[in-house]
Amino acid sequence: MRLYRATLAENRTLRRGLHLLELEAPALAQAVRPGQYCMVRCAEEGSFDPLLRRPFFVHSIEGERCRILLQVRGRGTAWLARRPAGAELDLLGPLGQGWRLPSRLSTLLLVAEGFGVVTLALLAQRASEQGLAVTLVQEVTQLPEGYPAALLPEEVEYHLVTSDGGTGQQRTLLTVLGDYLSWADAVCLGVSRETALQLRRHFERLRRPGFAQVAVLHPLVCGTGTCLACALETSRGPRLICQEGPIFDLQILTQG
Ligand SMILES: Cc1cc2nc3c(=O)[nH]c(=O)nc-3n(C[C@H](O)[C@H](O)[C@H](O)COP(=O)(O)OP(=O)(O)OC[C@H]3O[C@@H](n4cnc5c(N)ncnc54)[C@H](O)[C@@H]3O)c2cc1C
Ligand code: FES
Questions:
Q1: What are the sequence ranges of the domains in the chain?
Q2: Which CATH class is domain 2-95?
Q3: 66 annotated to a ligand binding site
Q4: Per-residue pLDDT at 164
Q5: What is the pTM of this model?
Q6: 177: left (phi over 0), alpha (psi -120 to 50) or beta
Q7: Which CATH architecture fits 107-252?
Q8: Cα–Cα distance between 42 and 48 in angstroms, integer?
Q9: What is the Cα Rg of the chain in Å?
């Protein structure tokens, strides 16, 4: 983990409230692994409002540039979304444990619920660069929430699941995931804890040891293991999300 100053090379608005920030950050681009994140200062130089840094994944890497896909939620993200090209950003990272893929793997299934797709984007890039067959299935409740598929590497197959098609059919991860699971050698989930547990209950394959991991997102205060505010109860005892996560084996997840 280290502190980086990165120059914002581009701030592209993809749609209202959704931005792609492109940062000149060569050392971070070298160091970060899929599933790790950075804590970004979201305040003017000399100001401490908001006081706490905000966590963000690196969405994708091109050469020495790291991209962040930014969804505006509150004050910190709104401030970041207003940064013009040329602005300097202050980042702490990479933090946490990323996705751990088994060594012998040829097919990888990524499953996202809404904006949970940000947990998986860099993994999709790296896995397809390594020649894995990668499929991303994303469930959204409304069509505009879908992932801008142009951001994915061409090799990644992208399937959108939504009940918002006016067809009266309820298509959800629970109803469509069976076929995808029998194809996959491993599964990475960017879904809520409740959905992850529901899927695990429903699909026997997701209960296989070492087969599935999940990203657990929770507002983080320090990101460095100091405040102890992010403890997650698991079947193997408490774990700090910021340090031992945010990626966990699906097997050890328990009801909150
Ligand atoms: C490990 C990690 C990686 C993340 N990566 C990204 C990313 O790549 N891109 C991105 O846009 N966002 C990401 N987020 C979410 C992002 O950090 C929050 O949206 C941001 O901190 C909100 O700050 P704010 O000041 O804008 O809003 P605040 O005013 O702090 O909060 C606004 C609302 O958002 C809620 N909120 C804050 N954090 C979360 C969270 N983690 N999950 C659910 N609700 C939350 C608050 O409870 C509040 O209701 C990530 C979160 C985590 C934990
Ligand atoms: S966020 Fe402070 S210990 Fe995890």
A1: 2-95, 107-252
A2: mainly beta
A3: no
A4: 61
A5: 0.95
A6: alpha
A7: 3-Layer(aba) Sandwich (3.40)
A8: 9
A9: 18
